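[recover] target loaded
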């Protein structure tokens, strides 16, 4: 059964799950009526609603002048402008006096089982102040950019909060990206300092990281100083005068534990995070201070219903937005205990996650569908070995969760009783936009359910007109929300064009979706040339330009191919230069080339050599045809209208090539 038909069959059966009764009385939002009331209030008086949340959740050093000022035509968006605050002070300092000083802020589990570190709010505060002083001693000032390229170790959290403390803008680059990707991102944001580590420990292996940083920095004159954490103890080359060991910097006699925080305007930048779009160059999504933090804290509280004595675990990497908002900023702003794990779900065995849930009595667990699908394949006997009764709320993010995976998660992890929240959002939205609330929303497997209060999600046609239920269309957000992006770093044109130009007065998400008769959202996936591989967002154009940068390649077209675990996998059609013969070695070399150019996550799983690509007479590659061939279509009827193709015979050649490959 394919995904769509299984969704429909579930809907037809009307299979839905009521929220649990137990725990409802203590929930932040206790019922659907309460949700509806909050939704209506936020719709009638958005400024009042968000001002209340911002006052409740955030400590401000000075009040704002105006809650919201915006103009999507420019575009310019200001939330709580004139309001003063410091994000690190909100995540740390205020918890030193609110009774949480000795509470665990971060519980870190290293990949080796015996490596555990606990940072209380007091301890984390001290580390952050020290590293903030280190950054200052390196010449970092308010507004400067600091690049961060690190494994999932506590120093990563310390580095980000230290940036926030002194008003520097952090730009995290996921450690799985290559030297070349790191270099592009540093060049784009002109970072002054890089924070990195000797290696990443992953699935029992030590993967050197510092050599990538060295390679990247060859083209980054803006970077003056580098701080290097010793994680694995492997040999690294340190460049005299530029590179410094983290532990030596932190032990410096002149480095104090005290560091007054920088008072920031609500609209000063907090961080840049690069994400893929439909062109070759990743976009530096800019988030600011007050609105972002309000939104991160608000959504963490309402969606996950995090309570003071909960252990909350988001399994993402801090290199992605999910880690920024739901490992770091959201939970720490609330004074919660955030569990951080260095390892992977499958090592040393496919029970690692469940073992940790049992070990730390995790209450709230937030992961990705690809993880669930991979663990589901290993069989339910793995989770069955553990006591998972501490769990209260389960979440999912990154891609659509197919009903089969949802039901497995619900039954085998949630004991058939826990709410499974499918949360839809994006790097650009800063936080969760469409999601059930655990004690309020009846659940339908495969649906992200409804917009959170204050989120005006809608489906429109290509003219921007609302479409009714059960019709596919563009997913847009009609009103601003505090967590939304404020720009694309250094590229105002792209900011406008990507998000605000096509549909006047709305934010364009780039996703397709529909609503059902109950107003529930069913997300269908990207409408643009962006792939979602294991919940990681990758631009086809980025991968294509990596492929054509290889001397053997004349032309390349990349599409997504359906994959049972990853959701989508990368399928590349490659035309070679004249005189170059296709071979398995070349295929391997090209995969390695993309790995080196972008990172392992972008390497195509399949490369099909093709003499010609299906092009229209105007020279445009007809991607839908390539997607169909990759997905296994062999009948011409599947390809729709191909009358504009310059040479329709390429299709049969491509089908033959596909059958020979997979
Ligand atoms: O296509 C949607 C998909 O992931 C995209 C955003 O990717 P990124 O910016 O990397 O952020 C991922 C984590 C927030 C979206 O445009 N996506 C994310 N969550 C879901 C989803 N698709 C369906 N259902 C979801 N719950």
């Amino acid at each position: 059964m394919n995904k769509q038909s299984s969704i429909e069959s579930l809907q037809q059966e009307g299979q839905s799950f009521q929220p649990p009764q137990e725990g409802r009385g203590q929930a932040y939002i206790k019922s659907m009526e309460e949700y509806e009331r909050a939704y209506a209030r936020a719709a009638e008086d958005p400024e009042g609603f968000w001002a209340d949340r911002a006052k409740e959740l955030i400590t401000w050093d000075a009040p704002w002048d105006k809650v919201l000022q915006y103009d999507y035509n420019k575009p310019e968006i200001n939330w709580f402008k004139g309001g003063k605050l410091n994000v690190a002070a909100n995540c740390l300092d205020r918890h030193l006096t609110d009774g949480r000083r000795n509470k665990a802020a971060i519980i870190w589990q290293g990949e080796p089982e015996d490596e555990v570190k606990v940072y209380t709010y007091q301890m984390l505060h001290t580390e952050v102040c020290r590293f903030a002083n280190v950054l200052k001693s390196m010449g970092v000032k308010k507004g400067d950019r600091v690049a961060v390229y690190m494994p999932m170790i506590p120093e990563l959290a310390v580095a980000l909060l230290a940036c926030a403390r002194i008003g520097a803008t952090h730009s995290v680059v996921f450690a799985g990206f290559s030297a070349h990707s790191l270099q592009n991102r540093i060049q784009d944001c002109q970072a002054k300092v890089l924070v990195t580590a000797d290696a990443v420990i992953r699935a029992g292996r030590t993967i050197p990281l510092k050599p990538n940083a060295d390679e990247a920095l060859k083209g980054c004159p803006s970077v003056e100083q580098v701080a290097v954490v010793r994680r694995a103890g492997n040999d690294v080359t340190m460049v005299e005068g530029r590179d410094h060991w983290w532990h030596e910097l932190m032990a410096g006699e002149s480095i104090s534990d005290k560091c007054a925080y920088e008072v920031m305007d609500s609209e000063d930048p907090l961080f840049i995070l690069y994400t893929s779009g439909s062109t070759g160059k990743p976009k530096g999504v800019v988030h600011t201070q007050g609105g972002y933090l309000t939104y991160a804290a608000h959504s963490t509280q309402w969606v996950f219903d995090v309570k003071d004595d909960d252990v909350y675990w988001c399994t993402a990497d801090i290199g992605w937005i999910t880690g920024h908002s739901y490992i770091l900023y959201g939970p720490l702003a609330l004074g919660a205990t955030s569990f951080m794990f260095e390892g992977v779900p499958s090592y040393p065995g496919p029970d690692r996650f469940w073992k940790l849930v049992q070990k730390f009595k995790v209450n709230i667990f937030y992961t990705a569908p690809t993880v669930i699908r991979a663990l589901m394949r290993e069989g339910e006997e793995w989770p069955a070995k553990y006591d998972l009764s501490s769990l209260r709320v389960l979440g999912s993010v990154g891609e659509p969760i197919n009903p089969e995976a949802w039901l497995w998660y619900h039954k085998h992890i949630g004991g058939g009783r826990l709410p499974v929240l499918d949360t839809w959002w994006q790097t650009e939205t800063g936080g969760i936009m469409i999601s059930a609330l655990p004690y309020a929303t009846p659940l339908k497997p495969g649906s992200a359910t409804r917009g959170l209060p204050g989120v005006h999600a809608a489906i429109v046609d290509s003219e921007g007109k609302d479409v009714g239920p059960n019709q596919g269309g563009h997913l847009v957000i009609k009103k601003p929300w505090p967590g939304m992006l404020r720009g694309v770093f250094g590229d105002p044109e792209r900011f406008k064009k990507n998000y605000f130009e096509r549909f006047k007065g709305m934010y364009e998400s780039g996703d397709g979706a529909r609503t059902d008769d109950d107003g529930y959202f069913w997300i269908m996936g990207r409408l643009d040339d962006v792939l979602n591989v294991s919940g990681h967002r990758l631009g086809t154009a980025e991968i294509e330009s990596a492929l054509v940068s290889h001397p053997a390649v004349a032309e390349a077209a990349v599409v997504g191919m359906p994959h049972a675990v990853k959701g989508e996998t990368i399928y590349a059609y490659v035309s070679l230069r004249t005189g170059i013969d296709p071979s398995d070695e070349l295929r391997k070399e090209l995969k390695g080339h993309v790995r080196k150019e972008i990172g392992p996550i972008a390497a195509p799983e399949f490369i099909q050599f093709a003499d010609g690509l299906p092009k229209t007479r105007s020279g445009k590659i007809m991607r839908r045809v390539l997607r169909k061939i990759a997905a296994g279509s062999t009948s011409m009827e599947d390809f729709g209208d191909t009358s504009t193709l310059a040479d329709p015979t390429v299709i049969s050649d491509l089908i033959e090539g596909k059958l020979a490959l997979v």
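[recover] notes: The radius of gyration is 24 Å.
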